[in-house]
Amino acid sequence: MDLRIFDLQRTDLQRTHPKKTAWLKIGCMLMLLMSSPQMMAAVSAEKVFADMEQQNRLKLIGTWRCSSEIAEYQIKTHTQDQYRADGTYASASVTQIQRGAAVQQSSIQVTAQWALNGSTVRLSEIQLQAVQSDDPGYAARLKEVFQQFDWTENKLLSLSSSSLAFFPVAPMASEMPIHCEK
After folding, report:
1. CA nearest neighbour of 81 among 96, 93, 68
2. pLDDT score for 138
């Protein structure tokens, strides 16, 4: 819009309806005053959220020792997860399954990229590095399963500088949260 036309229109309005012009100015000023704190609050909330996410990212970086158990199936898993500052991830896990008096053991090593978005940690570009098992058939099935997925997501339940709990949400979700310590 040409500002000169706006200035002429405003001048005509001021001349013909001075009270309307005064109320219009007051209304505009009130709108500016009322919207400024909201705009500042929105900007502040975004900054606080970004700062919190950065703090959580820094807390997550490091090596975590995690454990989970599915008692119903007598499965225990111990994992060492490493979240690196450059966005890379490495994990080595050992799973033990009680089968009567015998214990079947398997291990898996993976690498991936990781990113934090709010309270969700997303692993992408997952690469299976090694699979071993007491049962070669089970090792082959594990390899098949891991090759089907190149991503996964974990919902953070709690995170401090020394403690982490998350719930696997997709695609290889379990029904139990996983607890970790640095």
Report:
1. 93
2. 87
At 40, list the tokens.
């500042």
Give, rounded to a whole angstrom, the gap between the first and last alpha carbons of the chain: 61
Whether the bond between 171 and the residue before it is cis, its omega within 30 degrees of 0, is yes
CB 119 within 8 A of CB 155: yes
Residue 96, CA atoms < 13 Å, CB-side half-sphere:
9
> Which residue, among 75, 89, 72, 96, has the nearest Cα to 125 in the 3D structure?
89
Segment 133-153, tens digit of pLDDT: 999 998 999 888 878 887 888
Q: Where are the domains of the chain?
A: 3-55, 61-181
Q: What is the pTM of this model?
A: 0.71
Asked if 91 and 107 count as a contact pair (C-beta separation under 8 A), the reply is: no
Three-state SS at 118: coil
Burial category of 107 from C-beta neighbours within 10 Å (exposed 0-12, middle 13-18, buried 19 and up): middle
> Which helix (H) or strand (E) is 165 found in, with range?
strand 163-170
Q: 61-181 domain in CATH 2.40.128?
A: yes
Q: What is the pLDDT of residues 98-133, one digit of tens each?
A: 988 999 999 999 999 999 998 999 999 999 999 999
